Amino acid sequence: MSIKYSNEHEWIRVEGDVGTVGISQYAQEQLGDVVFVDVPQAGRTIAKGESVAVVESVKAASDIYAPAGGEVIEGNAALADAPGDINADPMGKGWIFKVKLGNPADLDGLMDQAAYDEFVKSLG
Amino acid sequence: MVQSLDRSQGRAGSIGSGSANSHGTFTGNRALQIEEPLIFEMGQAGRCGVDLPEPPKVKDRLNGVRRKGAIGLPGLSEPQVVQHYTRLSQKNYAIDMGVYPLGSCTMKHNPRINEKVARLPGIGDLHPLQPVSTVQGALELIDSLAHWLKTLTGMPAVAMSPAAGAHGEMCGMMAIAAALEAKGERAQRRTVLAPESAHGTNPATAAALGFVVKPIPANDRGRVDLAALKAALGPDVAAIMLTNPNTCGLFESEIVEISKAVHEAGGYFYCDGANFNAIVGRVRPGDLGVDCMHINLHKTFSTPHGGGGPGAGPVVLSAALAPYAPYPWIVKNGDTWQIAEDGAKVDGLPLGRLKAFHGQMGMFSRALAYIMSHGADGLKQVAEDAVLNANYVMAALKDVMSPAFEGPCMHEALFDDSFLKDTGVSTLDFAKAMIDEGYHPMTMYFPLVVHGAMLIEPTESQAKEDLDQFIGALRSLAERARSGTAAEDFKAAPRFAPRRRLDETLAARKPVLRWRPTNSFKQAAE
Amino acid sequence: MRYLPLTDADRREMLSVIGAKSVEELFRDVPASARLGTKIAGLPDHQGELEVERAFQAFAAKNVSPAAAPFFIGAGAYRHHVPSTVDYMIQRGEFLTSYTPYQPEITQGTLQYLFEFQTQVTMLTGMEVANASMYDGSTGASEAVLMANRVTRRHKALISGGLHPHYRRVIETSARWEGFRAVIGAADVDGLEDLIASIDKETSCVVVQNPSFFGHVRDFGKLAEACHAAGALLIVVVTEVVSLGLLKPPGEMGADIVVCEGQSIGNGLGFGGPYVGLFATREKYMRQMPGRLCGETVDADGKRGFVLTLSTREQHIRREKATSNICTNAGLCALAFTVHLTLLGEAGFTRLAELNHAKASQLADRLAAVPGVTVLNDSFFNEFTVKLPKPAAEVVEALAAKRILGGLPVSRLIPNDPSVANLLLLAATETATEAGMDPLVAALKEVL
Predict the structure, then answer these.
(1) Which residues of B touch A (CB under 8 A)?
(2) In sequence order, what E strands does C117-172 have?
(3) What pTM was estimated for this model as a whole?
(4) Could you tell me the domains of chain B?
(5) CB C53 to CB B304 under 8 A?
(6) What is the ipTM of this complex?
């Protein structure tokens, strides 16, 4: 199991051929209180880099880009009633969707934890 | 019993409203500030605010499509209705009360003669589809305003029908798409350039029409970077959308070079006319190479903002775009005025129709009254005083706040939040503290290119002594914020307004967009 | 100049604070070639109120106001009596000269009436949520189609031949430039149009009007079922909102989006604008709605208050991904609507609708007795179509010469279609009187 990050601040945790995707601690802090999440439906085929979800706060809407392509197997339905999970537990209960990976090579080029921490630091 | 629960919800002093009672009055009211329920919590069957005669008995021709259940509308008498809305009105800030420095919105004085003439029976009480022989004066009025709008902007044509600025933008960009289509270039020219400081409507409009928006950067003087613009121009560019004076309150000094470069590359120049007030009577956009520009009549020409509309957004057009103007327009045939409506045989290729009927006549009357009242001398003075007031505010605040760019500015002064650095006070907190000083805050966090932006547009309507008090209040707030010890105080503002800060997160997470009978049961039970 | 407070002494003092020698210096960024050296050509200098009012009275004198003539025109704009309280209330400076309620702490007045307005709109239409208003009915209808395209991810709209011709043109214009298909039905003069057969898997929505442009009243329940079975939305347009006092609300017919022209309540004819569009839908489509929304919340002291909400749909945040480019509503017209409807209440609104229906019925009966006139409608609310033995445009001009505003020749809105040339559309509201019908009937007998 490993967690990787995109430079759009999405994380993906891979277990077998399934990746779970959410946004990072840094991203949720930037957004502020999340009020609504538009999660993708199961069965949808997505490509790496495609806009697949939207996370909204009161003053901002942020597109979530797929860090890897494949078929969506589940969207986090609980976020409909508890969008604040993204603020409270972005790496856990605040996950957004699960994808059955189409091409493992999609994960190449994503950052590991250390690289992402450096990246966030560089943003000041 | 049910009724008393219903009626308790908005009015403090009864069931379930203890928290509203912290000021120690029985009612929860504070002198002139009256806590006011919703009409749905006040109404009773058996009350009515109008007296209508008994309808004559006739055969029902409703085809059996009758409403069965009640609508649910509350019943109130006329005095109750007057009191209700009067109390609500007293919870609003307004231009009529003082400085309303909302940048980019031009909150100038709204003369009441404008209201009066718009309501003359021979003007306000006319049906848009009366025979044209019975509305000659109305058509002449529209054409008079059209004439002055063309004259003031130095443009040969104007489309009068758009209902608001954004609607005018849609009209102007459709005209550009139509012109490109006529040249066979619509498929190829799909890029619209817009500075990052643009109003949100610009990219929204361009995207709705299928254009791809490409941002162009600003230089360190807050203007469009001409070199970057030239580099972005090419055979794919349909148009540039530019506000001038721009949203930083600055005149685009290289505007002539910009429009020349855009035209040479085969593109059109859309000017967002939101800030026309700074230059009216002094600069004609037509002389700057503009192809089309919407005019917000509720900004430059003083038609009332009305709590957010109605507006009007006529669009002036260059000779290149005039043939594509939408229906309808007014034509003079000898001594009579006619309306060119859909299907009429006309020169050109009208792009279609933006709106039912002929445009926002009520706004036309007011705008024309404004132009006539000011006249040629007054309009020029409007621009000068608006610019003078803004520069005065900028000069008087520059040592305690942080102007975003070197002056002079045009009609609005832009500050960033660097003067608040490390104070714990944000732009939002600063603005909310202005409310307690009796002012409507300035525009905040716009334009996006400036961190923590505060955009102050005093307009020409404010007297110097009122500006001096406003400046004094802002200086005092800035000094308090910079003392470094007042952050908590700022965060708690406003304290004296009809409401403290409202929970926008709650509103967006569980949207309650209407009153329901069950709302009050729930609250009462809690 | 009465609107400009600065004196020359003020100006001098302010320039010295700024450190500029002249105002001209402040305009130094304007290229010299673009500075207007002279005053605006042909525009007289400033004038007093008296002179301005005289000029407007001269415009007014060249018009024939419905107040001064028998009047029977509708077609999307209706002449109703507006109580005096309404116009007083919307002229209160706190409403008139306030702006969009961006600062909710000091705009609760505007926000609360918008919340009341939204609630009233849901009640009238039988829908779950409504926005804070649109520019007018026609632009609202066009926005409804765009919304249906977003919801269904389809791009073909079926437009009824019973929809107001201007509304059809507005949708057609949007379709042409914003890139979707609008299939426009032929003029539905008899009110028998069947759109069900035309719905297919690409259809995003069907747009109908009730009562139709020609006045017919229908229940669109079956059409709604057919739409839903095909995954399309039903959009019901109402141009005469008073009809909802008597008619089954579109929400009960299964409509997914309801758009009304709200002018009839609180707003005068005004030669076509400004008016106010009502826009309501199902809760599940809330986030796809265009326009502003007002929502309930609490303040820091726990008191109920209202804010603009779900703004992330809008252009100032979403920019090129916004649900619409609209950034305003028709605030003051919405206030006029709300005040008038509050004065009416359930009893008054219902009675107003009954009165309208009764007056129109009387008019239809009287016209049916005029030789050569055929009333085409079996059903109507306060407006219906008659067939004349000659072109209606000529008849209307002849009536106008007698200072009678006797209806709308359909050909004005549907030109170049010989089949509608002889059709005349007439409306009668509560403002119509027997004394006004007499000269119309007499004049028609003469001109036909």
Answers:
(1) 445, 504-505, 508-509
(2) 129-130, 156-159
(3) 0.94
(4) 1-46+76-91+501-526 (no CATH), 114-371 (3.40.640.10), 380-500 (3.90.1150.10)
(5) no
(6) 0.97
